[in-house]
Structure formats: structure tokens, C-alpha cells
Design brief:
With 173 residues, the protein is an all-alpha fold. It is 56% helix and 2% strand. It has one domain. It has a two-stranded antiparallel ribbon with strand order 1-2. Helix 1 packs across helix 8 and helix 5 runs antiparallel to helix 7.
């Protein structure tokens, strides 16, 4: 197994807490160029969200140990975590994370049996990734149905999938 890259470590952090490990450029995305002044010289500014993480009793250390043990047992998990660590992840990235899980557990049914991820949620991810507009991170130029989940919900789903996968592989013999 190759050594974990910085991007893989970001993927581990983002699966622990979806906003953890965000790069500054990702947090500032959408805030604009800065303050704006109106005709009277009044200054207006946009305020971004404040994100805080509180940890208790070695929680992140335990999670990191679990991730280390799991990565020793699964190259597919390492690839999925690497994708989760990329900046500006899109629906295609989230769907590829799911595809790595399907490859490791021999299809969606195996993901359900091993990780307890419902088939309905896996189908929602597929439909969302395929039907979300490319401008919003979707996989295809044209959609053929509804979009059950926005990109944020896809991010949360994949973080949960990765947490379950790491837990499964960490205890596997």
C-alpha cells in the first residue's frame, strides 16, 4: 500500500466531519471580491459562516487510527479517500467514491450487506449525480429525471459511507 498523501489525509478529515479539512479557497468560495460601497459611500460586506469543531477525549486520534488500519487493508478505500480530499469535489467525485465501494463489495447489494447503506440511498446518489446540472457539479450534460439530493447532501452521504467503510475495514482480519 502506498503512503497516504496529503489529499488522502484531507479525505479522512472530511469523512470525520464534512467541513473539516476544508481548504481556505473552498471556504471563501462565493463570498465575492470584498466590500461594496453604495452611492452614499456606505460600505457593505458579506459575512461568511463560522465553523467550529470541538473534540472530546481523543476522538480524532481514534478516528485516525481506525483510518490507518483500514487503509492497510483496502486500496479502493485509499482511492476513495483521495477523491474525498480533492478540492472542489463534484457529483462525479462523489459517485466515483461510491463506485470504488461497489467494486470492493461486488456491487450495490454488497455495499448494503457490508456497510448497511440502503439501496434507496445509493440510487438517490446515482440519480443526483446523473441529473444535477453540470454547472452545479453534475456528471452529464443533460438530465433525464429529478435530482433527489443537492451536492451538499451527496457530500454528507459519501462522508457517512466512508466512515462505515473505514470502520468495516479497520476491524476486518
Amino acid at each position: 500500500m502506498a503512503r497516504a498523501t496529503f489529499q488522502t489525509l484531507l479525505g479522512v478529515l472530511r469523512s470525520w466531519r464534512t467541513a473539516a479539512g476544508e481548504l481556505q479557497i473552498e471556504r471563501l468560495d462565493g463570498l465575492g471580491a470584498g466590500p461594496v460601497r453604495d452611492e452614499g459611500g456606505n460600505q457593505w460586506l458579506s459575512v461568511g459562516p463560522a465553523i467550529a469543531h470541538i473534540r472530546m477525549g481523543g476522538e480524532i486520534e481514534h478516528f485516525a487510527e481506525m483510518a490507518r488500519d483500514a487503509l492497510k487493508r483496502s486500496d479502493a478505500l485509499g482511492n476513495a479517500l483521495w477523491l474525498n480530499g480533492r478540492a472542489g469535489r463534484s457529483a462525479a467525485d462523489y459517485y466515483m467514491i461510491h463506485e470504488y465501494a461497489c467494486a470492493e463489495f461486488v456491487h450495490r447489494k454488497g455495499v448494503t450487506e457490508a456497510l448497511g447503506v440502503s439501496g434507496n440511498d445509493q440510487e438517490r446518489l446515482r440519480a443526483s449525480a446523473n441529473n444535477l446540472s453540470p454547472l452545479h457539479g453534475g456528471r452529464h450534460a443533460q438530465s433525464d429525471g429529478p435530482v433527489p439530493w443537492n451536492l451538499e447532501r451527496q457530500r454528507e452521504f459519501c462522508a457517512g459511507l466512508l466512515r462505515r467503510w473505514m470502520r468495516y475495514r479497520a476491524v476486518a482480519s
